[in-house]
Write a structure and sequence with these properties.
This protein is an alpha+beta fold. It contains nine helices and nine strands.
Length: about 240
């Protein structure tokens, strides 16, 4: 498993170009060239996952490896790799490496995002919408992600007597001030579980990482989703997605 692929799509996830039509699905080995291209676009040589890393994820968690593609060009717009974790995994993990290497539970309702890479926010939205009915059918309740806080270094220069906890608590109009936390907040990852110093190397975060938790919508109705066929679950979530 790579020690260099982090769990955030970009430091500045704002895009002005028209959102492309997207199609999301589970990834396979055939997608490796597209995955390597996206890794090369989004990360430097140290951060990007290698071919072996990506293949390992695909083999270990085929039903938790998703990608979103542009319908017109076939370009991979986003990829998300996840793995099962204990509900309290973050209590025992000091870094991203620890999160990735945490013991695999025999049973769990929680997932950790190993890596999330995207070139357009519509790709991330398509991934989450695609995975929603699958998460309901599989009984997943929470998805955890690690995030940088790229505004922290600049803020601290003007607030030298303050702490990282003070910074992540800052809100404007009910959403976090930090641009990356605000980005995730808008995609359902609203619970800030903890801050991890030295979570991963990221200069503008001063190497701090924040563990975020998102709750799969309607996951408390687990008995219902277990009884329904996947096609019915997909139909229900497709109708409800615009209401969330």
């Amino acid at each position: 498993m790579s020690r260099s692929s982090f769990v955030f799509p970009s430091d500045s996830p704002s895009h002005t170009r028209t959102a492309p039509l997207t199609h999301a699905r589970f990834l396979t080995r055939r997608d490796l060239p597209a995955l390597l291209t996206l890794e090369g676009e989004k990360w430097d040589a140290i951060q990007a996952a290698s071919s072996d890393d990506l293949l390992q994820r695909l083999e270990d968690y085929p039903s938790l490896s998703t990608g979103a593609f542009c319908k017109s060009t076939g370009t991979l717009l986003a990829s998300l790799f996840m793995r099962p974790v204990h509900a309290d995994f973050w209590c025992h993990a000091a870094s991203w490496v620890d999160c990735v290497d945490s013991p695999r539970p025999a049973r769990s309702h929680s997932l950790f995002g190993i890596s999330l890479s995207s070139s357009h926010p519509s790709g991330v939205e398509a991934l989450l919408e695609f995975f929603w009915p699958h998460a309901l059918k599989s009984g997943w309740r929470h998805i955890y992600l690690g995030s940088p806080i790229p505004g922290f270094e600049g803020w601290l220069r003007s607030h030298r007597d303050r702490s990282v906890q003070d910074y992540i608590a800052l809100q404007r109009a009910g959403v976090p001030v930090d641009p990356q936390l605000r980005y995730y907040h808008g995609r359902g990852f609203k619970d800030i579980v903890c801050v991890k110093p030295d979570y991963f190397p990221h200069a503008r975060s001063l190497d701090n990482g924040v563990i975020l938790r998102g709750t799969v919508p309607l996951s408390l109705l687990k008995p219902i989703w277990k009884m329904m066929p996947l096609t019915s679950t997909q139909r229900v979530t497709r109708h409800l997605v615009t209401m969330l």
